[in-house]
Amino acid sequence: xxxxxxxxxxxxxxxxxxxxxxxxxxxxxxxxxxxxxxxxxxxxxxxxxxxxxxxxxxxxxxxxxxxxxxxxxxxxxxxxxxxxxxxxxxxxxxxxxxxxxxxxxxxxxxxxxxxxxxxxxxxxxxxxxxxxxxxxxxxxxxxxxxxxxxxxxxxxxxxxxxxxxxxxxxxxxxxxxxxxxxxxxxxxxxxxxxxxxxxxxxxxxxxxxxxxxxxxxxxxxxxxxxxxxxxxxxxxxxxxxxxxxxxxxxxxxxxxxxxxxxxxxxxxxxxxxxxxxxxxxxxxxxxxxxxxxxxxxxxxxxxxxxxxxxxxxxxxxxxxxxxxxxxxxxxxxxxxxxxxxxxxxxxxxxxxxxxxxxxxxxxxxxxxxxxxxxxxxxxxxxxxxxxxxxxxxxx
Length: 395
Ligand code: SAH
Prior knowledge:
Blueprint: E1 4-8, H1 14-17, E2 22-24, E3 28-31, E4 40-44, E5 50-56, E6 61-67, H2 75-91, E7 101-106, E8 115-120, E9 123-128, H3 131-135, H4 137-148, E10 154-157, E11 174-177, E12 185-188, E13 191-194, H5 210-219, E14 224-228, H6 234-241, E15 246-251, H7 254-267, E16 274-278, H8 281-286, E17 295-298, H9 310-327, E18 332-338, H10 345-359, E19 363-370, E20 388-394
Parallel strand pairs: 1-4, 9-10, 14-15, 14-17, 15-16, 17-18
Antiparallel strand pairs: 1-3, 2-6, 4-5, 5-6, 7-8, 8-9, 10-11, 12-13, 18-20, 19-20
Bound molecules: S-adenosyl-L-homocysteine (SAH).
């Protein structure tokens, strides 16, 4: 192709032969002059063999691979990748009348490193995590329209805070399609919610907890539920549909508490079983009476965002889980999660084990949870696995 070139050092193509989608700067021997961040480059081995094409970026990851075949990265490329992703979502059953909120593009998991697209009804919220995806956004927009057709009316582009800071790309959060009379109400497993992509975190709602919420619903009957780190209240309205006796939602953000109240109200108007509190999780648990709750959800934000923070994060998970296990009623059920990508499943389990040992209570693992199928893990990119959870029975 006519793209500029990057030549690798000898033997540095090995991970690419195993389809890993990142090329680190240490693997690069030479590159063409005047490469700009975000442009497509062709990557060659030290023996001058084409090995991959991808987006060039400045930093420790220098190329994020889009294709292992030599081809043009154009509208038809985006259309092909997006239709593969859409077909997968249809195959797993998340595109329906009772569920129209799902992740359509999950970065490396869909062979599109640096791109996230979440769908809420007829609106797509699109997020670039690389300059390359930002540069390609209008072509991607056209491809999304070509694949989704009339079912897509609005695209909100939201990359102000997700692009690498070094790239002064002038990305403003705004609609790049539609934007008039947009409904922010979407449906998950036949429950409604407002997705606040304009002001909320990430794309406005955490679609990655859909299946875990459904599991919680099965356990909620007659229980006193504490939904800690509730954000927009997802676990709370499932607990209510499951027949919980009482549901308390807690988040340190007053805005999250407001969103939770709004969403609970949308599904269960004037239902006195629910109350939300704007409070810090640790403080709330510290003053909670023993045995007040017999179903607790702990879904905190990522305690570790990079490797250097792992040790402190593990301490945090241990403290938090110990506090909940201390207070949960006999026969209680604890749903506990970590969404830190740098914390492995084993590390998390060890932290929860240490928490249990601190309290001395008898604890059994009922379920081991992960991210749902619309957040697929590319088998060649195990780093894509980030959400883990345990459902525990505490005697
Ligand atoms: N469970 C939610 C997602 C949680 S996101 C869902 O299903 O959608 C993490 C939430 O934790 C955020 O809303 C954030 O405001 C809240 N949070 C962060 N630190 C907190 C703390 N110390 N105490 C309580 N909430 C906190």
